Each structure stands twice: as C-alpha cells, then as structure tokens.
Amino acid sequence: MKIEILPAKDIDRIIEMAWEDRTSFEAIEIQFGIAEKAVIELMRKEMKSSSFKMWRKRINGRQTKHAALRSSDVNRFKCSRQKTISLNKISKK
C-alpha cells in the first residue's frame, strides 16, 4: 500500500505504533499493509530529523520490534496490561 493514499488518522496510528517498544513492524504490516522499510520512510518524512534519529537509535536491534527475534511465548501485538484500543480511542470501562 502506498503511504500517500493513507488517511491522516492511519498515518498517526502507524507513527504511534512505531514509537511503541512492544509493537513489532510485522504487526504494523498486518494491520496497515506497509512493510518495515515503508514505516521507516514514513517516520523520516513525518518527524523532525532529530526525533527520527533518536527513534532509529532506540529501535535499532530491539528484539520486540521484530517478531522473529521475540520469544515464542509472545503472540500478541500489545502488552497484556494495556487497555483495549478500538478505532484509536481508549475504550471507557
């Protein structure tokens, strides 16, 4: 999927997911159809240069950002203690 045709709310959600340490690039690809390279390109385009460099330094080699490097016990996209998210809004309980 081309980044240019994504709605603004999807771009915001992809950036949010990319910032989350426990959300893998594979989870982003499953949900939005864009691969890791496209996520990196999107982050570079949408963020200030210093913020992008800080993000790249932080995620470089991080096991939780790649499903293949994770423990086989982890089979979810989010922390089990995280509130349920529906349509980018935290559900009220």
Key traits:
93 residues; mainly alpha; two-stranded antiparallel ribbon; 4 helices; 45% helix; 4% strand; disordered C terminus
How would you describe this structure to a colleague?
- Helix content is 45%, strand content 4%.
- It has 93 residues and is mainly α.
- It has a domain at 7-68.
- It has a two-stranded antiparallel sheet.
- The termini are far apart.
- The relative contact order is 0.16.
Q: Using DSSP, what is the number of strands?
A: 2
Q: What's the helical proportion of residues?
A: 40-55%
Q: Roughly what fraction of the amino acids lie in strands?
A: under 5%
Structural class, from secondary structure content? mainly alpha
- Order of strands across the main sheet: 1-2
Determine the N-to-C terminus distance.
35 Å
Any idea what the radius of gyration is? 13 Å
Shape: globular
The parts where pLDDT drops under 50 for at least 5 residues are 88-93
> How are helices and strands ordered from N to C?
HHHHEE
Average pLDDT number: 76
Largest sheet: 2 strands, antiparallel
Count of DSSP H/I helices? 4
How are the secondary structure elements laid out?
Layout: H1 8-19, H2 25-32, H3 36-46, H4 49-59, E1 85-86, E2 89-90
Antiparallel strand pairs: 1-2
